[in-house]
Design brief:
Distance between the termini: 24 Å
CATH class of the largest domain: Mainly Alpha
CATH topology of the largest domain: Non-ribosomal Peptide Synthetase Peptidyl Carrier Protein, Chain A
Largest sheet: 2 strands, antiparallel
Shape: globular
CATH superfamily of the largest domain: Protein of unknown function DUF3227
Oligomer: single chain
Strand order of the largest sheet: 1-2
Strand content: 5-15%
CATH architecture of the largest domain: Orthogonal Bundle
Order of helices and strands: EEHHHHH
Structural class: mainly alpha
Helix content: 40-55%
Number of helices: 5
Amino acid sequence: MHIIELNTGQVGKMVQPQILLNPSYSILMKNEPDELIFGDVVAQAVDDTFSALGDSPKQAIYRHLKIVYGIDKEDIPNKIEDFASAIEQTFGSVAKLIEIKIIEKLHSQCEEFCYVPKNSQLDFVGYVNDLQNRLEL
């Protein structure tokens, strides 16, 4: 919570919030969370996940995605289906573990987001698409 103190001096006069030593009155305002930008959140979660493997493997994965699948690092949030497919083709069954780690990173940045899968299985693309819809409201 922040306390913003105002001293107008005149009724009806608009003023900028100020920090005053002797305020006329105070307004209690609730902190609003910083607006999360979908592309930044996804890019950071992917990068953090790949970073856990080490810098050289991370760079090799990004290079592979670009050369083989035409997916630049910056394009991953906008090509999430292609990215998921590329990860699954590249890593096989291990891809699910990578996707789960990315989801964990996303959840740590967007704790208020609640995803309910349409069936009993966790769907990486569905999760990311629902998160995008939530953040872009």
